[in-house]
Design a protein that fits this description.
Organism: Thermodesulfovibrio yellowstonii
Radius of gyration: 13 Å
Protein name: Sulfur reduction protein DsrE
Order of helices and strands: EHEHEHEHE
CATH superfamily: DsrEFH-like
Structural class: alpha/beta
CATH architecture: 3-Layer(aba) Sandwich
Low-confidence stretches: none
InterPro entries: DsrEFH-like, Sulphur_relay_DsrE/F-like
Pfam families: DsrE
Number of domains: 1
Helix content: 25-40%
Amino acid sequence: MKIGILISNNDAETLWNAFRFGILCLNMDYENEVTIFLNSKATAYEDADSEKFNIKELVKSFALGGGKIIGCQKSMGMRGLEGNEICQKGGQKDLYELMVKSDKFICF
């Protein structure tokens, strides 16, 4: 099953729950393809990392588990962020394709 997850804010607990859910989807008995699209303030997810909400570790676990992360290139550019091997840059067309090609789509 193809699962799309859209995250649009940088609230630490919201990011934490979204990435935990993405990891759960990857680890279920099904052969799920999970893609997270970071939009708006969520592109600065690393800023929300803390001892209580280990965002960076969850992002790494999600990527190592086979999950794909796309960050809105415009939102990243507004925040001076670059894409990397974990979070590649994408655009609204990528978000659209994720939405229409996903069997399930959830927003955080």
